[in-house]
Structure formats: structure tokens, C-alpha cells
Amino acid sequence: MLNDMRIDLHDMSGAQAFQGLSNAHELDLTVYDVSCLLLTDEMEAPLITVDQKLIERAETGKVNGYEG
Q1: Which tens digits make up the pLDDT trace of 1-50?
Q2: How far is residue 32's CA from residue 20's CA, in Å, rounded to a whole number?
Q3: How far is CA 64 from CA 2, 3, 5, 6, 28, in A?
Q4: Exposed, middle or buried by CB within 10 Å (0-12, 13-18, 19+), for 57?
Q5: Confidence (pTM)
């Protein structure tokens, strides 16, 4: 079943990982949440979530590397 799913993997550079960790700490988000924001930017995809805290942080524009 998993072999039938199309799943793309995206590597983070060391600098991106460090940036994500710094953002997560500064904005009280998980590294996973910040990674999702950075990935949506990289893929030029919309952020689709019901996580109000993540939406608010994304809207502030304070996540380094995230343009929104």
C-alpha cells in the first residue's frame, strides 16, 4: 500500500535545520511546524492547517525563510 503512494522526500541542509530549530525556539513552535512552513515556501504551496497557533505565527512573518 505504501509503495502505491506518491511521497516526495525533501532534504534540509544543515543551515535550514539550524534555522528551523532557532525559529521553533523563538516562536514557541515545534520543529515539525516550522519545517512545514519552510517546505510550503520551497514548494510554493499554500499552508493548509487548522492549527491556529501555526497560522498566527505564519501571519506574523517572523519565521526566517518563510515568505507566506
Answers
A1: 556 777 777 777 777 777 778 878 888 888 888 888 888 888 888 888 99
A2: 9
A3: 33, 35, 31, 29, 14
A4: buried
A5: 0.68
CA 48 to chain centre: 11
Is 36:47 a contact under the CB 8 Å cutoff?
yes
The cell for 65 is: 525563510
Full 3-state SS string of the chain: CHHHCCCCCCCCCHHHHHHHHHHHHHHCCCHHHHHHHHHHHHCCCCCCCCCHHHHHHHHHCCCCCCCC
